[in-house]
Amino acid sequence: MDEMPHYEWEEIYRRYVNTVYRLCFMYLRNVEDTEDAVQSIFFKLISREKSFSDYEHVKSWLIVATRNHCKDILKSWWRSRRVRLETLPELKFRVAVETTSNVLDNLLLLPEKYKTVLYLYYYEDFNVREIATMLGRKESTIQTHLATGRKRLKLNLEDQYATLPNK
């Protein structure tokens, strides 16, 4: 995939923009920051000097780059110092954000090491070996994170449904 023509970049964008967007939103939980991050990640991809061997290589690079970029944003001084408009008492309003399900909402509440592994496994269909390679971890660690993450997610969902009023 050396020196790709514009239609190749369009195809890569079309294939992976939703994956990158969902992963960014999982970390950032904010539409505006997510859109900015997606744009930055695809710009990094196009600006990258090394070529890719195939589309799966591109997808793996995008997932790792997305994870790293979002973690950098979350650590940044600017993000920790700014005040979100909807948190100000006089500007209370609701930001409508579509979510795919209650399970995804609860997945986002898990610690990063569990939600990343569960997301890649269930939403992006990567296997344990691929996730371990992407994240630079042992397969046994990924399996442990999957098992622990599933248990925590199950407990969160059970607690949530246990508190619903009976009809």
UniProtKB/TrEMBL annotation:
Belongs to the sigma-70 factor family. ECF subfamily. Residues 107-153 form the RNA polymerase sigma factor 70 region 4 type domain. One of its GO terms (molecular function) is DNA binding. The lineage of its organism: Bacteria, Bacillati, Bacillota, Bacilli, Bacillales. The keyword Transcription regulation applies. This is RNA polymerase sigma-70 factor (ECF subfamily). NCBIfam families: sigma70-ECF. Keywords: Sigma factor, Transcription, Transcription regulation. GO terms for biological process: DNA-templated transcription initiation. Gene3D superfamilies: 1.10.1740.10, Winged helix-like DNA-binding domain superfamily/Winged helix DNA-binding domain. Residues 12-78 form the RNA polymerase sigma-70 region domain.
